[in-house]
Amino acid sequence: MRLSYNSPVVLTFSIASLIVFILGAGIFGEVVSLKFTVADRMDFQDFWSYFRLFSHVLGHYDLQHLSGNILLLMLIGPLLEEKYGFWRLIIMMLVTALVTGLLHAFLFTGLLLGASGIVFMFITLSSFTNRKAGKLPLTMIFVVIAYLGKEFMVVGNENDNISHMAHIAGGILGVVFGFLNKVD
Fold this sequence. Notes:
Number of helices: 8
Helix content: 55-70%
CATH superfamily: Rhomboid-like
Number of domains: 1
CATH topology: Rhomboid-like fold
Mean pLDDT: 87
């Protein structure tokens, strides 16, 4: 039996996140960490501001944050990668990173980092994997109610250093991508 790099998008993303975490926690510390966060303002003159709009999804606050996101990505991601393909999944992840980064830069304070927006996009998108033409998956409705409903209830009410906006945006994007992709 041989090992298989069965989900290149998800595995490469996970490995990159782990490398960023190790470098950020090590001797490079803040120099690395700040390149993988979105600040609460956008400096249009700074190349790194544009880079951070995408790179923030690779940065994580601590090992629990990293492992929680990566575990969910690795559970759901291979199925999505098989269903939607390498390039479509990369595009969906990049769009989610960009949207959550822009929303944070223009509407919120503090720093944004982590793959939670992509995780929520994966969660809602996964409910579309067996969608048939002319039918609305009941699982999608329950997933949206369970995951996004909770986020809408707590957004703005908790000071927990969690970007509920990224969760909501990622979840909504997963629904949008689910409807935009053709059905079998």
